[in-house]
Amino acid sequence: MRTREGGRLGLRTLLTAAVCVSGPPSAFGACGAAQPATQGRVILNASWDTVFRTGASGVDDGLFALPRKPTFWRDLIVVADRIENRLVAIDLAGRVMWKAGGDGAGPGLFAGIDDVDVYRQDTLWALDQQLARVSQFLRTGEFVGTISLSALPRTPGQIVTFYDGWAYTRSGGAGAFTLVRPPRPSGSLDVVFESESHPWADSLGTWRQTRLEPARRGTPGRTWVGAFRYGPGFVIFNDTVFSRHPYVVPGRFSWRSPSILPTQEMRDRAITDTVEYAAAAIDATADRIFMLAGGRPRRPQHGEVPTRFVDVYDWGGGYRGSFLLPFHTRELATNGELFVVTRLEPYPHVIGLRPDRGSIAEWTSGRSR
Predict the structure, then answer these.
(1) Are strands 288-293 and 177-180 parallel, antiparallel or unpaired?
(2) 3-364: what fold?
(3) CA pair distance 349, 333, nearest whole angstrom
(4) Could you give the CA distance from residue 305 to residue 294 in angstroms, rounded to a whole number?
(5) What CA–CA distance (Å, rounded) separates 192 from 257?
(6) What does the DSSP assignment read for 57-69?
(7) pLDDT for 88-123, tens place per residue?
(8) How many other CB atoms are there within 10 angstroms of residue 268's CB atom?
(9) What's the alpha-carbon Rg for the chain, to the nearest Å?
(10) CA 343, CA 354: separation in Å to the nearest integer?
(11) Domain boundaries in the chain?
(12) Please, are residues 31 and 305 in contact by the beta-carbon 8 Å criterion?
């Protein structure tokens, strides 16, 4: 049964959001602690229909210990549990369909699940950095094999798959990635292309671009987007060609030890800036790119600020508007109609949300900045 996040407060929340658009760009601005300042974002909606909650309210309590990386797979949503080291598949109504994996180094087991993606809509790939391999599963949850990554020239950080190959971003590479051909029957991997880093022309660029979150376009070909967790913008890749695009609200970064930075300008900026997520998570469809943005992690000098915005862009890099989530999350997946997010309190669970007025495509089709 669907419920409304916000209920009767939806209209009031929408009016508050409209006021916040023109408000000051502070952490919460004049809108108060319950309503984050939009900093120039165009809010498309602020109330939601709840489609499901899985692992909550007495149903499947304890199903998740640390749910991460929700991933759509046709009519399934696969969630990786980083503590239980297992995969949990639910349907679009939130019902558990299967579980796979577990702790260990044997076939189908994990020392850790660092990323997941769906290859050719046929198999799920689950990256295990510690064991240097990708484990493969069918839509039934059956384990079907592994791909050893030990021969690769670089350690994968995040993976993104295409029909005719796959790519991985390199940990600490400031946007560097490696393009690989489809696995051979023998298991060997052929590297097609290794990129250089993609730093921005920014005085703190190399410090900001600490992690590149990838998501592929839901169309044939090697088109994908890489979003920097902190930084001024994101990169759209078409095979080996790329273009840079600015975030509607650039992420800000604060260096913990500014004295080591080489110039006074950089030291001043590091002291005055505040860490803020530009893309805490990302997903994409054939038409749109969705980035979970805003908020900031806990630091000794300040507490955590909730992450509640989903900024929407087209594949030309144009801004199309933002959704305001009803609560804080660190994970996001979407199929273009349904948002899947996670919550850890009062216990870890996964939530399916739908904008309360029509489809996401209808909301975002007419806006561009």
Answers:
(1) unpaired
(2) Neuraminidase (2.120.10)
(3) 14
(4) 8
(5) 39
(6) TTBSTTS-SSEEE
(7) 999 999 999 999 999 999 999 999 999 999 998 899
(8) 12
(9) 20
(10) 16
(11) 3-364
(12) no
